[in-house]
Amino acid sequence: MTVHTPASAPETQGQLMIPPRPRTWPKALGVTAVLAALTILTTIPAIGGVEIDLASIARNWTNGVDRIVQMLTPDWSILPRTWQPMLETLQMAIVGAAISAGLAVPLSMWAARPTNPNGVTRRAVRFVLNVVRAVPDLVYATVLVAMVGVGTLPGVVTLVLFDIGIVVKLVSEAIDSADAHYMEAGRAAGGTQTQINRVTALPQTWPVFASQVLYSLELNVRISAILGLVGAGGIGRLIDEMRGFYRYDALGTIILEILVVVLLIEWASNVLRKRLR
Amino acid sequence: MTATDTAAPARTPALPIPPRPRQVAARAAATIVTIVVLVSFWGLDLEWSKIAQLPQDLVHYGRLMFSDPDWSMLPEAALQTWRSVSMAWIGAIAGVVLSTLLGIPAAHGVGPAWVRFPLRWSFAVIRAVPDVLIAIIILTVTGLTPFTGALALAIGGIGTHAKWTYETIEAVPPGTAEAVRASGGSLWEVVRWGLWPVAAPELMSLALYRFEINVRTSAILGLIGVGGIGAMLTQYTQHREWDVVGVLIIVVVVVTMLIDAVSGKVRRRIMEGATVRDVERKH
Question: Does residue B27 sit in the same domain as residue B150?
Answer without folding.
Answer: no
